[in-house]
Specification:
The complex is a heterodimer of chains A (about 160) and B (about 90). A five-stranded mixed beta sheet of chain A has the order 1-4-5-3-2, with helices on both faces. In chain A, α1 packs antiparallel against α2. Chain A contains five helices and five strands, in the order βααββββααα. Chain A has a single domain, classed as Mannitol-specific EII, Chain A (3-Layer(aba) Sandwich). Chain A has about 160 residues and is α/β, with parallel strands linked by helices. Chain B has one domain: 3-Layer(aba) Sandwich (Rossmann fold), CATH 3.40.50. Chain B has three helices and four strands. In chain B, α1 links the parallel β1 and β2. In chain B, α1 packs across α3. The longest helix of chain B has 15 residues. The chains are: A alpha/beta (about 160), B alpha/beta (about 90). At the A-B interface, α2, β2 and α3 of A face α1 of B.
Chain lengths: ~160, ~90
């Protein structure tokens, strides 16, 4: 399975977040709006960070907000949130965070290919700054190569 | 050779680490089995692992282990992964 689609409802650009919880909730709300999850999933994403710390900040400026599969996941989905002012998550190296990717997977096994696709996108070091600077949803879909006009085959060069 | 990538949920960040570790091991021509796991089941999943890959935030959650704990800062920096994996496995 390739990346799930990124409808406009799953993309929130240039908004303010008061803190990391707010930022994770924005990513959760976008997943909800797009139909991928129910509200409970958003709170589980916050809880994961409460329990284990800011490890979801996996690269400079980027958080991958997610939780385990559960009944509050309707279908696999991703969301993209960019902040007008990056916030501190408490990660020793990768703060502050300006781009949050929300990820929901329906089953533990189904996520592997989705995540491999995400790795393909983000292994290109230009991706995070490009997302942070994106001004509309079409631009975001182009960065993820989810734009129907420019479907790229295979892995980015690296 | 067994490598375990861990995160809080066992899906998501550990899976990204797994995918990229496999790419790097391939590049290094090292034959290894890479699995993704969560902290809670680490005792079982990493019982026979040589290397545990994780985030700086999770190091304290890892109990006593014989495996080398390799801390990755940027999960998308294949060069960082390569240097650290080569040092741990070389």
């Amino acid at each position: 399975m390739p990346l799930p689609p990124l409808p406009d409802a799953a993309i929130t650009l240039g908004v303010r977040a008061s803190d990391w919880r707010d930022a994770v909730r924005l990513a959760g709300e976008a997943l909800c709006r797009s139909g991928a999850t129910r509200a409970e999933y958003t709170e589980r994403m916050v809880q994961l960070v409460e329990d284990f710390g800011a490890y979801i900040v996996i690269a400079p400026g980027l958080a991958l907000a997610h939780a385990r599969p559960g009944p509050d996941v309707r279908e696999a989905g991703i969301s993209v949130v960019t902040l007008s002012e990056p916030v501190i998550f408490g990660h020793p190296h990768n703060d502050p965070v300006g781009v949050i990717i929300g990820l929901a997977v329906a089953t533990p096994d189904a996520h592997v290919t989705t995540v491999a696709e995400l790795a393909n996108v983000f292994n290109d070091p230009r991706t995070i700054p490009a997302l942070a600077a994106a001004s509309d949803a079409n631009e975001v879909r182009r960065i993820f190569a989810l734009d129907s006009d420019t479907v790229e085959e295979g892995e980015p060069a690296r | 050779m067994k490598v375990v990538a861990i995160c809080g949920a066992g899906v998501g960040t550990s899976a990204i680490l797994k995918v990229n570790a496999e790419r790097v091991l391939d590049r290094l021509d090292i034959d290894a089995d890479v699995t993704a796991s969560d902290v809670a089941s680490l005792a079982i999943s990493a019982a026979d692992a040589q290397v545990i890959l994780t985030s700086p935030e999770l190091v304290d959650k890892i109990g006593p282990t014989n495996a080398d704990v390799v801390v990755i800062e940027n999960y998308f920096d294949l060069d960082e992964l390569e240097v650290k994996l080569e040092a741990a496995l070389g």
